[in-house]
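Posting this for the archive.
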Amino acid sequence: MQRQRKLLIAKIAAVAGAIPFLLWAHDYGPDPGYSGVPKDQNGATCANSQCHIATTNDPKNTGSVTVTFPNGQNYVPGVKQHLVVTIADPAQRAWGFQLTARLASNTATQAGSFAFTDANTLLMCSRADFTGFSAQCKNAASDSCVSTSTTCAANFPLQFIEHSETGFLSSKGHTGSQTYEFDWTPPATAQGNVMVYVAGNAANADGTEKGDHIYATNYTLTPSAGGGGASLDNILSATAFGGFTTVAPGSWMELYGSGLSSSTRQWGGSDFTGTKAPISLDNVKVTIGGQQAFVYYISPTQVNAQVPSNVGTGSQSVTVTNGSVTSSAHSITVNDLQPGLLAPSAFVIGGKQYVAGLFADSTQSGPFTIPPGSIQGVAARYAKPGDTIIIYGVGFGPVKDTGGNDIPAGTVVTVANTLARSFSMTIGGQPATLSYAGLAPNFVGLYQFNVTIPNIPNNDLTPVTFTLNGTASPTQYIAVHN
């Protein structure tokens, strides 16, 4: 796996004299330009006398190098993809790779940008003539990189992603295959087809240039065409809270279709601005009634988003934008209120829908207030009169903090608050005492009701109802035993 970088550096120095450039300080990972691009180093891979003495794709060897693309061999302009490179060879036990992306119309031109997502890969930025390069990685000190940035300077227009020293060392001893993962963001606008070139090294880990197997291949990615790249087919309110065909300001909606995203994830702390939730994840956005929704979860077939507070009632148009591609509009009715308690379909027992009530001293994984043993693998115990349980909900409308101020959608709740509309709850047909009824602390758009079980008879099917702003809810259930 060793590269003879000192030979290359000496050659550059002899030609370039005192021209400053960044040097690669350790022995692992290819120099730039060895992924098999025809215009890079005469189309070379690492199968040459200065790094590995081997024949690329030697038919005597039975291995391969492959790339997994999350959406098949296409790209949405500007929308990040998470790629996985696999080097496989049953005879070898150490692994490395180099990959780049170029415009098919001119393979000397970089297509998009790369970013390492862990310490096992690094970003190599290179001059177009390979007379200088900059290695950038997560652990700059231990891997002798010049920085931890994932942005290349303007005078280093070519980019390569490859294994780091940490990645190589952690791969030693692995038999059969090894994977490396990283992100690629395509060009911001459609540039025609993109060629992805990759070379892999399945090494024998003896520390010499001999006995390693070099594999190379390439892929052609096509841009998603027109509005067909994102299709929005159906919208429901949060299914675990009722799955209604209407929504309300501040409630949650689930959007279903295809091509909605090129990645799959939910929001994380770095996506927030202070206490404000993101309106975009990986360049995926949702609008309803012309307003930006707050995006919690994205995947190619489903996006979850919170309806903003300022959306008008009545029929509203909803779209999903994935990069530069926006779906056709889908209409949904927005009501003033659309309340639902947390009652997932898994909590239907004997044809009856139970609420996912939690004891005040429990965790979010239970135990729940359902009949013990009624759902395999779900912790449960009976509630007793006098117990305080917590029931969650969505869509219960505006709230006010102690100063009388609204808490808008898309905000992490950090202060006590109460529902602005009238609310009451009954359990077992008796009024229940509420010690809290408002948005849940430290969450976005989740309502919390702390309710005390009244003095009622034992019943595995104890009815739970609420009345919000004068409108009664359907009946759901909990289990109560003294």
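The chain has a mean pLDDT of 88. The longest strand covers residues 213-223.
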